[in-house]
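Metallo-beta-lactamase domain-containing protein
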Amino acid sequence: MLVISILFTVILAIMFFIIFHPVFGQKPSKNTIQHYKTIQHYSNGSFMNQIPTEMATDFRSMLPVLKEFLRGNPNRQPKEAVPLKPFQLSEQSINTEAKVTWFGHSAFLLEMDCKRILLDPMFGRAPSPVPWFGNKRYSKDLPFRVEDLPEIDLVVFSHDHYDHLDYSSIKKLKHKVKQFVVPLGVAGHLKRWGVESGRITECNWWDKVETAGITLICTPARHFSGRSLSDRNATLWCSWVLKGQLSKIYFSGDSGYGPHFREIGENYGPFDLTLMECGQYHEKWAAIHKMPEETVQAHIDVRGKVMIPIHWGAFTLSLHDWTDPVERTLIAADEQGVEVCTPMIGETVAVHSNNLSKQKWWRK
């Protein structure tokens, strides 16, 4: 009887935690859902991809993955903390030159047309609702302190997964940010975390927004969303086109390979730089995360000039060696004649530079 009581108490505590803790965000309201029902890629309470996207989660499909997981892989994460390039951003450092700084995984600072834009700023220590249980950041620390960042003109999110939209990061950043631009449904999370609705712009696929002097186009991706057990695909996922006066950048977010890349390239390419997902893949979920060779093809499809591989170098979310994504991407890029830039975490790269960072820092 005591064991049953303890088990019941634990289950009840977990349920209350999921229901009431703000880290899980906010589900769309009934009125919002009524609006979503008018959208072509929304059906039966969920957003959908442009093409059929199977994500097999049944026991038979996942058994080989479970066996692979149980066998273990000592190279899934680095043996020691990855190197950082110290980064300092002051009020006086901003200018018209387009620059990007990578902070690991998919987090970037884009400086363009005298504006500062953060892309998927996940600055937490682990991509989890309970960070002390998640896979910790490879670099241990960030190359800066969030508290030391100056005012940010714009924060852009691709979707609401924990490795992209982080509760603790928003709590630290929200008072520094002028405007947030997010896909449909993600505003609810931000509002629950204390961001005023007037500072949030929500977008559907192909919506065009001009804010902070920058043009943003919310473009499709092939993925999914959700922060708890009951909100699968309740919010939209996307990629982004960012256009300044002299520069055009494509940010892939998370996406399996699909025809949307060519469609984006035909409508908005060519791009001076693409930030293209290449990591946390597996054959079993290739429909929602590109294989590295597909990363290079997606870059070609959107008509990119230079590519920075992203979604690697910070966290372990799959079973491959932690360096496999960038190594396989470089091999495929060389075969296809694609120029790849590989900055260190914290390193700033000028978008139109003729001397791009190509050091193999992860091999040291």
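thats it. The domain at 99-363 is CATH 3.60.15.10 (Metallo-beta-lactamase; Chain A). Residues 306 and 338 are 7 Å apart (CA to CA). bye
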